[in-house]
Write a structure and sequence with these properties.
42% of the residues lie in helices and 14% in strands. By secondary structure, it is an alpha/beta fold. Strand 3, helix 4 and strand 4 form a beta-alpha-beta unit. Helix 2 runs parallel beside helix 7 and helix 3 runs parallel beside helix 4. The longest helix is centred in the C-terminal third of the chain and has 21 residues. Bound molecules: pyridoxal-5'-phosphate. Pyridoxal-5'-phosphate binds next to helix 3 and helix 10.
């Protein structure tokens, strides 16, 4: 099997599974029960939380959620509910994940003024336009750190500076799902951010919403006082253990992995260009973990199917919109023609990818082009 769909989900690392099983075996008791075994589980859960604080930043409260979809839904809406007096406008990138874009549609129906900040053809936010759009009615700016379909990295430090100068009361919320563990980021730049364990070689069903300690959000989960009231529901200690271990391992080898994956990206770029693909050069606005490209001679879906029949797995657009069978909002926002957009494929790279894997992938793609050329 040759797997290249890492931006959609990653396999769980052996060390993560092992640690998670140990946690499950030893700390299965409900952290909220009133006996000694529960107290032990609760103490262990607190230790896991402390480790996450140590690795990411001590300026935030971390709420464990079912994943980043929930963290984005609850973080954005929950913060806005608690600070209505700070303004009625939200500025957002049109290339956000569906969990953010759908939240924006809901907020608009509820009467908020949702404004989309344009991106250029690389997918980078147009900072001059953002500067003009920022005013005292802006409550929040939502801009993801790394895009999940095309891998573009936003200039988040400059976005922060603009907010501080033009609308200092506005919050900066960032979806860091495709960035955590892959880049050295100073999370303190954000007022709130989200992350997901299954993009980091950790288990599915767990993610986090980090919110600066000075802020509060209204939780959409009620019926318990878990996580200091930030989200009701029994604490999944073993999943938080898996998330903690996944963060630890990815943060530890972050720069080494980045270097290796960048080499793979450059190799793939050269080979795909030779086949006639239009690629995105690896520069300071491109994540080496997400290789997005297209070839006008072959549509993405038959290519993906051909590879899948050969036990090779790539992505086309975000798996959350893939099922919806409509053109990606991201590709529309970067002004790609419909024809090009229907040919875009996404190849996820990983420290687990070997150079030989890329050779197999490229040679099968070459075969598919000959077979399906339009
Ligand atoms: N945000 C981004 C950028 C993503 O890539 C994804 C997953 O596809 C999500 C949010 C949603 O994450 P989860 O699957 O944990 O709900």
């Amino acid at each position: 099997m040759y797997y290249f769909d890492y931006p959609a989900s990653t396999p769980v690392l052996f060390e993560v599974q092992k640690f998670q099983n140990e946690v499950e075996n030893m700390f299965f008791a409900n952290t909220e029960s009133r006996h000694a075994l529960a107290a032990k589980s609760n103490r262990f859960y607190k230790r896991l939380e402390e480790e996450i604080v140590r690795m990411l930043s001590d300026q935030f409260n971390y709420t464990f959620t079912s994943g980043a979809t929930e963290a984005n839904n609850m973080g954005i809406q929950g913060l806005l509910k608690k600070r209505k007096q700070k303004g009625n406008t939200v500025l957002v990138l049109p290339i956000e994940h569906a969990s953010v874009l759908e939240t924006m549609k809901k907020l608009k129906q509820e009467g908020m003024n949702i404004q989309y900040v344009p991106v250029d053809t690389r997918g980078v936010v147009q900072l001059d336009v953002l500067g003009e759009m920022l005013n005292t009615d802006v409550n929040m700016v939502v801009a993801m750190t790394v895009n999940n379909e095309i891998g573009v990295i936003q200039p988040y430090e400059q976005i922060r500076e603009l907010i501080d100068t033009k609308a200092p009361e506005a919050l900066f919320f960032s979806d860091c799902v495709q960035a955590l563990g892959k880049f050295d980021i100073d999370f303190n730049i954000f007022d709130a951010f989200s992350a997901s364990s299954h993009k980091l070689y950790g288990p599915k069903g767990i993610g986090l919403l980090a919110i600066k300690k000075s802020l509060v959000h209204e939780s959409d989960r009620i019926g318990g006082k878990h996580q200091e009231g930030r989200r009701a529901g029994t604490i999944p200690t073993q999943l938080i253990g898996g998330l903690m271990k996944a963060i630890e391992l990815s943060v530890k080898s972050c720069s080494e992995n980045h270097e290796y994956v960048s080499e793979l990206y450059t190799q793939l770029e050269t080979e795909m260009k030779q086949l006639g693909f239009v690629t995105r050069p690896l520069d300071c606005v491109q994540s080496p973990y997400i290789f997005s490209c297209y070839h006008l001679g072959i549509k993405a879906l038959p290519l993906q199917q051909y590879l899948s029949d050969n036990d090779i797995y790539i992505g086309t657009q975000s798996s959350c919109s893939e099922g919806a069978n409509k053109q990606s909002a991201i590709l529309t926002a970067i002004a790609l023609s419909q024809e090009a957009a229907s040919s875009v494929i996404r190849i996820g790279l990983s420290p687990k990818t070997r150079q030989e894997d890329l050779h197999v992938l490229v040679s099968k793609i070459s075969e598919a082009i000959q077979k399906y050329s339009v």
